[in-house]
Amino acid sequence: MPGRAEIDPLLDAGRIVVHGTDADLAAVVLRMLRKQRLADLVVAYVPVADSPVARLWGLTPGDLDRAMTAPGRPAPLVRDDSGGVLLGSGVVTPITGQVYCDDQRVLNGPARRLVVSPDPAATPLPESTSDPLSTQLEPATDGLLVTAVRRGLLRRQQVARGRAVQASFRAATVHRDGLAHPRPAEKWVWYRHTEDLLLAR
Q1: How far apart are CA 47 and CA 174, in angstroms?
Q2: C-alpha span between 109 and 115 (Å, rounded)
Q3: Of 20, 29, 40, 179, which has the most beta carbons under 10 Å away?
Protein backbone atom coordinates (compact mmCIF):
# COMPACT_ATOMS: atom_id res chain seq x y z
CA MET A 1 0.00 0.00 0.00
CA PRO A 2 1.19 3.54 -0.65
CA GLY A 3 2.56 5.52 2.28
CA ARG A 4 2.94 9.21 3.02
CA ALA A 5 6.16 9.48 1.02
CA GLU A 6 4.32 8.39 -2.12
CA ILE A 7 1.03 10.16 -1.43
CA ASP A 8 1.93 13.59 -0.04
CA PRO A 9 3.66 14.95 -3.18
CA LEU A 10 0.47 14.21 -5.15
CA LEU A 11 -1.87 16.13 -2.85
CA ASP A 12 -1.08 19.52 -4.38
CA ALA A 13 -3.01 18.70 -7.56
CA GLY A 14 -6.73 19.16 -8.08
CA ARG A 15 -7.29 15.47 -8.77
CA ILE A 16 -5.56 12.31 -7.58
CA VAL A 17 -5.99 9.03 -9.46
CA VAL A 18 -5.58 5.76 -7.56
CA HIS A 19 -4.94 2.67 -9.69
CA GLY A 20 -4.93 -0.33 -7.38
CA THR A 21 -7.03 -2.11 -4.79
CA ASP A 22 -9.67 -0.92 -2.35
CA ALA A 23 -6.99 -0.99 0.37
CA ASP A 24 -4.79 1.30 -1.75
CA LEU A 25 -7.68 3.73 -2.16
CA ALA A 26 -8.34 3.68 1.59
CA ALA A 27 -4.69 4.49 2.31
CA VAL A 28 -4.82 7.52 0.00
CA VAL A 29 -8.14 8.78 1.39
CA LEU A 30 -6.91 8.40 4.96
CA ARG A 31 -3.90 10.55 4.10
CA MET A 32 -6.17 13.13 2.45
CA LEU A 33 -8.25 13.20 5.64
CA ARG A 34 -5.20 13.77 7.83
CA LYS A 35 -3.91 16.53 5.52
CA GLN A 36 -7.39 18.15 5.37
CA ARG A 37 -7.71 17.83 1.59
CA LEU A 38 -11.14 16.21 1.37
CA ALA A 39 -12.98 19.43 0.55
CA ASP A 40 -11.00 20.48 -2.51
CA LEU A 41 -9.29 17.40 -3.95
CA VAL A 42 -11.12 15.05 -6.29
CA VAL A 43 -10.14 11.40 -5.89
CA ALA A 44 -10.59 9.07 -8.84
CA TYR A 45 -10.33 5.31 -8.51
CA VAL A 46 -9.30 2.85 -11.21
CA PRO A 47 -9.73 -0.61 -9.65
CA VAL A 48 -7.45 -3.34 -10.94
CA ALA A 49 -10.29 -5.87 -10.50
CA ASP A 50 -13.92 -6.04 -9.48
CA SER A 51 -14.24 -5.03 -5.84
CA PRO A 52 -16.74 -3.76 -3.24
CA VAL A 53 -15.84 -0.13 -4.00
CA ALA A 54 -16.19 -0.72 -7.76
CA ARG A 55 -19.61 -2.35 -7.31
CA LEU A 56 -20.78 0.28 -4.84
CA TRP A 57 -20.11 3.21 -7.15
CA GLY A 58 -20.43 1.56 -10.59
CA LEU A 59 -16.73 1.80 -11.47
CA THR A 60 -15.24 -0.34 -14.23
CA PRO A 61 -11.81 -1.92 -13.66
CA GLY A 62 -9.18 -0.27 -15.85
CA ASP A 63 -11.38 2.70 -16.90
CA LEU A 64 -8.72 5.43 -16.84
CA ASP A 65 -10.66 7.76 -19.15
CA ARG A 66 -13.52 8.01 -16.69
CA ALA A 67 -11.12 8.56 -13.81
CA MET A 68 -9.53 11.50 -15.61
CA THR A 69 -12.73 13.20 -16.78
CA ALA A 70 -15.66 12.32 -14.48
CA PRO A 71 -16.70 15.11 -12.11
CA GLY A 72 -16.10 14.79 -8.41
CA ARG A 73 -19.40 14.11 -6.64
CA PRO A 74 -19.96 13.94 -2.88
CA ALA A 75 -19.84 10.45 -1.42
CA PRO A 76 -20.21 9.63 2.28
CA LEU A 77 -16.91 8.92 4.01
CA VAL A 78 -17.14 6.31 6.76
CA ARG A 79 -14.61 6.28 9.59
CA ASP A 80 -14.07 3.93 12.52
CA ASP A 81 -12.94 4.24 16.11
CA SER A 82 -9.55 2.71 15.38
CA GLY A 83 -8.52 5.63 13.17
CA GLY A 84 -9.29 4.08 9.80
CA VAL A 85 -11.64 4.82 6.92
CA LEU A 86 -14.03 2.54 5.06
CA LEU A 87 -14.50 2.99 1.33
CA GLY A 88 -16.07 -0.30 0.28
CA SER A 89 -16.78 -3.04 2.79
CA GLY A 90 -16.19 -3.71 6.48
CA VAL A 91 -16.82 -7.32 7.47
CA VAL A 92 -16.95 -9.29 10.71
CA THR A 93 -17.38 -13.02 10.09
CA PRO A 94 -18.64 -14.98 11.88
CA ILE A 95 -20.10 -12.74 14.57
CA THR A 96 -21.94 -13.32 17.84
CA GLY A 97 -23.04 -10.20 19.66
CA GLN A 98 -25.17 -7.06 19.54
CA VAL A 99 -25.18 -4.53 16.73
CA TYR A 100 -27.07 -1.23 16.59
CA CYS A 101 -27.42 1.16 13.67
CA ASP A 102 -28.29 4.44 15.38
CA ASP A 103 -31.23 3.33 17.59
CA GLN A 104 -32.20 0.27 15.54
CA ARG A 105 -31.03 -3.13 16.72
CA VAL A 106 -29.64 -5.07 13.79
CA LEU A 107 -28.32 -8.13 15.58
CA ASN A 108 -28.69 -9.80 18.96
CA GLY A 109 -26.98 -13.19 18.83
CA PRO A 110 -25.05 -15.13 16.18
CA ALA A 111 -24.83 -14.38 12.46
CA ARG A 112 -22.85 -15.65 9.53
CA ARG A 113 -21.42 -12.20 8.93
CA LEU A 114 -21.89 -8.47 9.44
CA VAL A 115 -21.21 -6.17 6.49
CA VAL A 116 -20.95 -2.37 6.69
CA SER A 117 -20.47 -0.03 3.72
CA PRO A 118 -20.98 3.59 2.71
CA ASP A 119 -24.54 4.15 1.49
CA PRO A 120 -24.68 5.32 -2.15
CA ALA A 121 -28.22 6.59 -1.52
CA ALA A 122 -27.13 8.90 1.32
CA THR A 123 -27.88 12.60 1.05
CA PRO A 124 -24.79 14.79 0.50
CA LEU A 125 -23.90 16.84 3.53
CA PRO A 126 -25.22 20.42 3.24
CA GLU A 127 -22.19 21.76 5.10
CA SER A 128 -19.02 19.73 5.12
CA THR A 129 -16.36 20.68 7.65
CA SER A 130 -13.09 19.25 8.89
CA ASP A 131 -13.65 21.01 12.23
CA PRO A 132 -17.16 20.18 13.49
CA LEU A 133 -16.53 21.90 16.84
CA SER A 134 -16.23 25.31 15.15
CA THR A 135 -19.50 25.06 13.23
CA GLN A 136 -23.12 24.47 14.16
CA LEU A 137 -24.04 21.49 12.01
CA GLU A 138 -27.26 19.61 11.53
CA PRO A 139 -26.28 16.02 12.32
CA ALA A 140 -26.39 13.59 9.42
CA THR A 141 -29.09 10.93 9.57
CA ASP A 142 -27.64 8.59 6.96
CA GLY A 143 -24.34 7.67 5.36
CA LEU A 144 -23.85 3.98 5.90
CA LEU A 145 -25.53 0.67 5.23
CA VAL A 146 -25.31 -2.34 7.54
CA THR A 147 -26.37 -5.92 6.78
CA ALA A 148 -26.44 -8.87 9.19
CA VAL A 149 -26.60 -12.21 7.36
CA ARG A 150 -28.14 -14.86 9.60
CA ARG A 151 -27.11 -18.46 9.79
CA GLY A 152 -29.24 -21.25 8.37
CA LEU A 153 -30.35 -22.39 4.97
CA LEU A 154 -32.33 -19.24 4.17
CA ARG A 155 -29.58 -16.84 5.27
CA ARG A 156 -32.09 -14.15 6.22
CA GLN A 157 -30.75 -10.60 6.17
CA GLN A 158 -31.39 -7.70 8.49
CA VAL A 159 -30.60 -4.41 6.75
CA ALA A 160 -30.47 -0.90 8.22
CA ARG A 161 -29.38 2.55 7.14
CA GLY A 162 -28.13 5.29 9.42
CA ARG A 163 -25.27 7.51 10.53
CA ALA A 164 -23.39 5.15 12.85
CA VAL A 165 -23.02 1.47 13.72
CA GLN A 166 -21.95 0.17 17.12
CA ALA A 167 -21.06 -3.50 17.48
CA SER A 168 -20.08 -5.54 20.54
CA PHE A 169 -19.20 -9.17 19.93
CA ARG A 170 -17.13 -12.16 20.90
CA ALA A 171 -13.51 -11.73 19.82
CA ALA A 172 -13.33 -11.75 16.02
CA THR A 173 -11.29 -10.31 13.17
CA VAL A 174 -12.55 -7.16 11.47
CA HIS A 175 -11.76 -6.78 7.76
CA ARG A 176 -11.68 -3.29 6.25
CA ASP A 177 -11.53 -2.92 2.48
CA GLY A 178 -9.97 -6.35 2.11
CA LEU A 179 -7.39 -6.06 4.91
CA ALA A 180 -7.67 -7.80 8.28
CA HIS A 181 -7.18 -5.68 11.38
CA PRO A 182 -3.97 -6.89 13.02
CA ARG A 183 -5.63 -7.82 16.33
CA PRO A 184 -8.93 -9.52 17.21
CA ALA A 185 -11.55 -7.06 18.42
CA GLU A 186 -14.57 -7.28 20.71
CA LYS A 187 -16.20 -4.00 19.72
CA TRP A 188 -16.17 -1.70 16.72
CA VAL A 189 -17.78 1.59 15.74
CA TRP A 190 -18.28 2.95 12.22
CA TYR A 191 -19.67 6.44 11.64
CA ARG A 192 -20.13 9.02 8.91
CA HIS A 193 -17.46 11.69 8.82
CA THR A 194 -18.42 15.39 8.87
CA GLU A 195 -16.96 15.87 5.37
CA ASP A 196 -17.91 14.03 2.21
CA LEU A 197 -15.39 12.59 -0.20
CA LEU A 198 -15.28 14.08 -3.71
CA LEU A 199 -15.29 10.87 -5.72
CA ALA A 200 -14.99 10.96 -9.52
CA ARG A 201 -17.92 8.96 -10.91
Answers
A1: 22
A2: 15
A3: 29
